[in-house]
Amino acid sequence: MSHPAPDATPTPRGAVARFLDAVERVGNKLPDPAVLFLGLMLVVWVVSAALAQVNFAEIDPRSGDPIQINNLLAGTSFTAFMATMVSTFVNFAPLGVVLVAMLGLGVAEHTGFINAALRAILSVTPRMLLTPVLIAVGIFSHVAVDAGYVLVIPLGAVIFYAAGRHPLAGIAAAFAGVSGGFSATFIPSSLDPLLAGLSQEAARLIDPTIVLSPLNNYYFTTASTALVVAVGWFLTDRVIEPRLRNTAVDGDMADMPAMETLTARERTGLWAAVASMLVLVAALVLTSVPVGSAWRAGPDSPNAGELLVATAPLMQSIVPLIFILFLVPGIVYGYMAGTVKNHRDVVQGMSRAMSGMGYYIVMAFFAAQFIYAFGQSNLGALLAIKGANALQAMGLPMGVTLIGIVALSGFVNLMVGSASAKWALIGAIMVPMLMQLGISPDLTQAAYRVGDSSTNIITPLLPYFPLIVVFCQRYVKSSGIGTLLALMLPYSLALLVVWTLFLLAFWGVGIPLGVGASYEYVPG
After folding, report:
1. Which of 2, 246, 409, 501 has the smallest CB count inside 10 Å?
2. Residue-wise pLDDT tens digits, 10-32
3. At what angle are helices 113-123 and 153-162 packed, to 10 degrees?
4. At 439, phi and psi to the nearest 5?
5. What are the phi and psi torsion angles at 31 (to 5°)?
6. Number of helices and strands (H, E) in the chain?
7. What is the number of other CB atoms lying within 10 angstroms of the CB of residue 449?
């Protein structure tokens, strides 16, 4: 079957495309996040030395005395920094939670359990529900961190093409779920405790005793799943696909990926793995329900007997539970499907997952040192107090302030790709500053997640963005960055507006954001 040749005439560049091209050029000139953290730490050192002799009128809420900047270049401060460098890194809250979660998820991905589960879900989906299910599967893939980019998005093109629909529409829908809906989730992922850990470290600049639940945004992000699916479904079927009707599919059919059917062994392995996961969940529920359950907060806790509070062992075990709930089914699937022969294969899966985290570990080291220096200098507290005073003087309504957080997060996302890197940078200022205005870290974090997710799909600085362009070129040879930006811009703008309104509605009605979360911060 022949296909019309792609139009060789260059497409005129619109204002939005030219703007995003400029963002790409500027963003490519930014240093790597690890080097950025190092540079910022050096800046903090110099600024702290310059401001250490300045007398400020602002009162430190932790001591009741005028705030004082600590000179990090002073002998005692510098030697203390050197002496605690290792412990600062090892005790960096987000480091352990991500690595432990990835051990279990790495095995599930290595053995093929996650791959088989996603293929099984998509293969039985009716044509009329293809779009919403594909987006929902993209959101579900967050539990495996990067699995969605390398698995769900190309499979989206395959199943759309097999159903007689345009494959680029499948890529767009899957990309909207995997990346645009990055902060929508109905299954807790490693991102939840990661961001909560960073928020807690930032909040302790103001309140050293504050404890945030790793699921402090869970109710909001779970409800957001339906929102992202609905927005993506409407745009894919009513906006994106109609625009693609005149775009010819001219890729090499022989080179296109195939939607492989599960083999008998894979089906057996999948059923056994799902059964093992259900058994684990049932055991967790049964051991949590009794009033005297060891999963509940102990008698010394102010919330004694409670199950869904930050001090309860259940909440403190979220990351280990993610580890076990994917490790065991992954092993079961591997043995039943034949992808695992012995325990060495299981360990290899963990090793591969850890090798893929090398860059994150490097970034975490420099992020930990920057956050430590920033906290020790008292610059964060000073900025928070001055910022809060400025906002109070402006008299902006709380809703307007939230919109500002979303907009700022979305803009910064165009420059820095990593969600944790961005939050480590701006959260250290945002969280304590807004706490001074009575806005809780939970709400500030939720606003950040909306802005961060909404613009993921239009930034060429996203590490997987070039890969998605390659997926598009398999079907339409003339595809480029502009093609993908044009596909994803409607999703980004719609999510930015609708999701922000959704957050404001949550706040307005008073629906809890998550486990143990609040909207207002009241000093203890």
Report:
1. 2
2. 444 455 445 544 544 554 465 76
3. 30
4. -95, 125
5. -70, 165
6. 24, 0
7. 26
